[in-house]
Specification:
The chain is of the alpha+beta class. About 40% of the residues lie in helices and about 20% in strands. The chain is built from eleven helices and nine strands. It has a six-stranded mixed beta sheet. A three-stranded antiparallel beta sheet has the order 5-6-7. A hairpin with a 6-residue loop joins strand 2 and strand 3.
Length: about 300
């Protein structure tokens, strides 16, 4: 489900006329039957000003597609910003952008996890590059239109208020940044170049609409990944909170080896990913030759 969909030209006009946040909120109400929170509206108002500056270039075709708040099928997660078109080889292309208003963040000893400050205080969250990459992975492996049309997806993150500190895009998170580059406060031109590297032409068809209305089916790659995971290889891809809880559980398991018992209770309604998380933990801990029992 896409909350807001337009051409690049229409998006630029909506931001220039200062109607973009209201337009997204009205579309939100139309799709979901309710308005979103004032904080999210303010977030759109702020972040879209930065994206306006990035995409407002004659080098990006006016008819390139723009989607805002695309809900990933089978999840409650939403992609902040998508640009669609054709790449240099005239093949369908998406650039997905995870937007953050963070000014700073703190590292953690857990892979792919950082500490960010929110209104309610600090919290551990997935690194923005991990978020963007995992969203791209889910889209590629569940959407039949993307699979059949061989749509290329290039993920990245844009932290437009974040002053470079050598941490968020540094060595500690380099594996994730390599999969989805992170652009900071002074990187608008670099982000623009990144988008133009992949989206060169407009498409004769509405790629985003076709993807949004495409059938869902796990790809063979996804099935192979699951089989591989059950053999003790790479983890099955997790989104946002799943990744945070997974790394927290692995961290506590290591501490428990020091002789002090640790307890982690994971709560969540149906479809929140508890089973995916449990399977990942079972495989990971057993692979580390640790006595493991997980109750669902």
């Amino acid at each position: 489900m896409i909350i807001y969909r337009a051409t690049k030209k229409q998006f630029v006009e909506d931001v220039f006329n200062n109607t973009i946040a209201d337009n997204i909120d009205e579309a939100f109400f139309e799709h979901l039957g309710r308005h979103t929170s004032p904080n999210e509206v303010r977030s759109w108002q702020n972040s879209m000003q930065y994206m306006f500056k990035v995409v407002d270039t004659p080098e990006l075709p006016d008819e390139a597609g723009v989607a805002i708040e695309y809900q990933i099928p089978l999840t409650a997660k939403r992609v902040d910003f998508i640009i669609s078109g054709l790449n240099a080889q005239k093949k369908a292309q998406l650039v997905i952008i995870e937007l953050k208003q963070w000014e700073t963040a703190e590292p953690t000893p857990k892979p792919g996890i950082v500490v960010a400050r929110f209104q309610q205080g600090k919290a551990e969250v997935a690194h923005p590059s991990y978020q963007a990459w995992s969203y791209a992975y889910m889209l590629s492996n569940y959407n039949l239109t993307i699979q059949e049309r061989d749509v290329n997806i290039s993920p990245c993150a844009f932290l437009h208020n974040y002053t470079p500190d050598g941490m968020i895009n540094g060595k500690l998170y380099e594996d994730y940044v390599a999969k989805a580059p992170v652009f900071l406060k002074n990187d608008a031109a670099r982000l623009q170049d990144y988008i133009l590297r992949y989206v060169r032409y407009c498409s004769p068809e509405d790629i985003i609409w076709k993807i949004d209305n495409g059938r869902l089916r796990p790809s063979k790659q996804l099935a192979d990944s699951l089989t591989s995971m059950l053999k003790g290889n790479d983890e099955f891809i997790m989104l946002d909170d799943q990744k945070v809880v997974y790394e927290s559980a692995v961290y506590l398991a290591k501490k428990a080896q020091e002789g002090k018992k640790q307890v982690l209770i994971v709560e969540g309604g149906p479809g929140t990913g508890k089973s995916v998380l449990a399977i990942n933990l079972l495989v990971s801990l057993c692979h580390q030759k640790r006595c493991t029992q997980i109750s669902l």
